[in-house]
TrEMBL record:
Organism expressing this protein natively: Castilleja foliolosa
Localization, UniProt: Endomembrane system
GO cellular component: endomembrane system
Primary site of residence: membrane
Keyword tRNA processing: no
Protein name in UniProt: Vacuolar protein sorting-associated protein 11
Domain of life: Eukaryota
InterPro entries, A to Z: CHCR_PEP5_VPS11
Pfam families reported in the protein's UniProt record: TPR_PEP5_VPS11
Membrane topology listed for this record: Peripheral membrane protein
UniProt keywords, alphabetically: Membrane, Metal-binding, Zinc, Zinc-finger
A GO term for molecular function: zinc ion binding
Length: 111
Protein backbone atom coordinates (compact mmCIF):
# COMPACT_ATOMS: atom_id res chain seq x y z
CA UNK A 1 0.00 0.00 0.00
CA UNK A 2 2.92 2.30 0.56
CA UNK A 3 3.87 2.13 -3.12
CA UNK A 4 0.35 3.33 -4.01
CA UNK A 5 -0.03 0.47 -6.48
CA UNK A 6 -3.82 0.30 -6.66
CA UNK A 7 -3.92 -2.26 -9.47
CA UNK A 8 -1.38 -4.38 -7.60
CA UNK A 9 -3.64 -4.41 -4.55
CA UNK A 10 -6.55 -5.66 -6.66
CA UNK A 11 -4.34 -8.38 -8.16
CA UNK A 12 -3.17 -9.41 -4.69
CA UNK A 13 -6.76 -9.78 -3.50
CA UNK A 14 -7.58 -11.82 -6.60
CA UNK A 15 -4.87 -14.27 -5.57
CA UNK A 16 -5.50 -14.28 -1.83
CA UNK A 17 -9.24 -13.60 -1.76
CA UNK A 18 -10.46 -16.30 -4.15
CA UNK A 19 -13.63 -17.84 -2.70
CA UNK A 20 -13.05 -21.01 -4.71
CA UNK A 21 -9.92 -21.66 -2.68
CA UNK A 22 -11.48 -21.02 0.72
CA UNK A 23 -9.70 -17.68 1.07
CA UNK A 24 -10.41 -14.80 3.42
CA UNK A 25 -13.17 -12.87 1.66
CA UNK A 26 -12.87 -9.97 4.09
CA UNK A 27 -9.85 -8.85 2.04
CA UNK A 28 -12.29 -7.45 -0.54
CA UNK A 29 -14.17 -5.49 2.12
CA UNK A 30 -10.88 -4.17 3.49
CA UNK A 31 -9.73 -3.16 0.01
CA UNK A 32 -13.00 -1.32 -0.69
CA UNK A 33 -12.59 0.54 2.60
CA UNK A 34 -8.99 1.43 1.71
CA UNK A 35 -9.92 2.75 -1.74
CA UNK A 36 -12.81 4.76 -0.33
CA UNK A 37 -10.60 6.33 2.32
CA UNK A 38 -7.91 7.37 -0.19
CA UNK A 39 -9.64 10.62 -1.03
CA UNK A 40 -8.85 10.33 -4.73
CA UNK A 41 -10.59 8.99 -7.82
CA UNK A 42 -10.03 5.26 -7.99
CA UNK A 43 -13.28 4.44 -9.79
CA UNK A 44 -11.79 1.68 -11.92
CA UNK A 45 -10.43 -0.18 -8.92
CA UNK A 46 -13.62 0.28 -6.88
CA UNK A 47 -15.66 -1.23 -9.72
CA UNK A 48 -13.33 -4.24 -9.80
CA UNK A 49 -13.64 -4.71 -6.05
CA UNK A 50 -17.43 -4.45 -6.24
CA UNK A 51 -17.47 -7.27 -8.79
CA UNK A 52 -15.95 -9.63 -6.23
CA UNK A 53 -18.01 -8.28 -3.34
CA UNK A 54 -21.16 -8.91 -5.36
CA UNK A 55 -20.08 -12.32 -6.66
CA UNK A 56 -19.50 -13.70 -3.17
CA UNK A 57 -22.12 -11.53 -1.43
CA UNK A 58 -19.48 -10.26 0.98
CA UNK A 59 -21.14 -7.03 2.15
CA UNK A 60 -24.71 -5.80 2.35
CA UNK A 61 -25.44 -2.90 -0.02
CA UNK A 62 -25.95 -0.44 2.86
CA UNK A 63 -22.39 -1.08 4.08
CA UNK A 64 -21.08 -0.58 0.55
CA UNK A 65 -22.92 2.75 0.37
CA UNK A 66 -21.65 3.88 3.76
CA UNK A 67 -18.09 2.93 2.87
CA UNK A 68 -18.37 4.53 -0.56
CA UNK A 69 -19.62 7.81 0.92
CA UNK A 70 -16.24 8.39 2.59
CA UNK A 71 -14.58 9.35 -0.70
CA UNK A 72 -15.81 12.67 -2.11
CA UNK A 73 -13.90 12.03 -5.35
CA UNK A 74 -16.07 9.04 -6.30
CA UNK A 75 -19.42 9.66 -7.96
CA UNK A 76 -22.54 7.54 -7.61
CA UNK A 77 -22.10 6.38 -11.20
CA UNK A 78 -19.32 4.11 -9.90
CA UNK A 79 -21.75 2.01 -7.84
CA UNK A 80 -24.98 2.66 -9.73
CA UNK A 81 -24.98 -0.63 -11.65
CA UNK A 82 -23.99 -2.62 -8.56
CA UNK A 83 -26.80 -1.06 -6.51
CA UNK A 84 -29.36 -1.57 -9.29
CA UNK A 85 -28.51 -5.27 -9.54
CA UNK A 86 -28.65 -5.71 -5.77
CA UNK A 87 -32.02 -3.94 -5.53
CA UNK A 88 -33.42 -6.00 -8.38
CA UNK A 89 -32.24 -9.22 -6.73
CA UNK A 90 -33.75 -8.18 -3.39
CA UNK A 91 -37.04 -7.28 -5.07
CA UNK A 92 -37.19 -10.74 -6.65
CA UNK A 93 -36.57 -12.38 -3.28
CA UNK A 94 -39.31 -10.30 -1.68
CA UNK A 95 -41.73 -11.29 -4.43
CA UNK A 96 -40.82 -14.97 -4.04
CA UNK A 97 -41.42 -14.70 -0.30
CA UNK A 98 -44.77 -13.00 -0.87
CA UNK A 99 -45.88 -15.80 -3.21
CA UNK A 100 -44.76 -18.45 -0.71
CA UNK A 101 -46.66 -16.72 2.11
CA UNK A 102 -49.83 -16.61 0.03
CA UNK A 103 -49.42 -20.28 -0.83
CA UNK A 104 -48.99 -21.26 2.83
CA UNK A 105 -51.97 -19.14 3.86
CA UNK A 106 -54.15 -21.05 1.40
CA UNK A 107 -52.83 -24.38 2.72
CA UNK A 108 -53.51 -23.33 6.31
CA UNK A 109 -57.04 -22.18 5.48
CA UNK A 110 -57.77 -25.51 3.80
CA UNK A 111 -56.63 -27.47 6.87
Amino acid sequence: MQAHDLEGLVECCKRLGDSGKGADLSLWADLLKYFCELGEDCSKEVKQVLTYIEKDDILPPIIVLQTFSRNPCLTLSVIKDYMARKLERESKLIEEDRVAIEKYQVVIQMS
